[in-house]
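Team,

Forwarding the record for the chain on the shared tracking sheet. I've put the sequence and predicted structure together so nobody has to dig through attachments.
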Amino acid sequence: MGRVVVVGSVNVDQVAQVERHPKPGETVLALRHDRLAGGKGANQAVAAASAGAEVLMVGCVGDDDPGRAYAARLAARGVDVTHLSVSPGEPTGAAYIVVDDQRENTIVVVPGANAAIEAGWPDRFPDLHPDDVVVLQLEIPLGAVRWAAERAHQAGARVVLNIAPYADLPTSLLDLADPVVANEHEALLLADSGATASSLLVTMGRNGAVWDGEVVPAVQLTPDQVQDTTGAGDAFVGALAAALARGAGRIEALEAAAAAGAEAVRHTGAQPDGRLDRLPPPPAAGQGEPD
């Protein structure tokens, strides 16, 4: 069984709940505010660990209280944070999320320490094995994404590349991934860019997901079961990577990912029990400390 090595962002999510999203130039009052664990990389790492995988988190936090709290949270969730570095010159990354009564969200990300993820490489990067699955997203510098994808390819490891938030990428990078994961909006942008992916998985919300023609339906939920769509895509990717790392085929991996995505919308925030002012119970064995 391989490991899941997540190379990506660590963000503190500032989540405001509103009745409706403001129009341009308009101010609305929030009904509630929460400070939650987020960042696409960390979200996917937690999801993969929850699915039973051995997970290493490669990322960067600030030398601040949010960064220390987040590192402790990841370790308590069973994620190895040995390769989570600390940048003394930048704050821990943040995302500002607004969720309305229809459970739809808008997100603005401030990279912070995530932009310093390449500092000290390759010394801080783990040795990779052919059965590992390396998970990447685009909330870190694109140079880091390319470097990690090439390193994984050289080691014979599998690359799962989530092209979110969307950015134009060359076909040479996309072809290192099996699969490239995109939602419907990102898939359209990818098509418009003229670049192609040799292995493409498109998530379609309530309509399920398709991976190079192989389709798996979504888990159907009633409206009252949907609490917050934030992080559903990350839960999907993390569970997908965990399934692939244990040797699952495409359909089995898609089904596991779809189930995780459906479960993720049933709680508030990108991660279960994600408040940073309290930690979940620690795992049975320690998982390392950030550098």
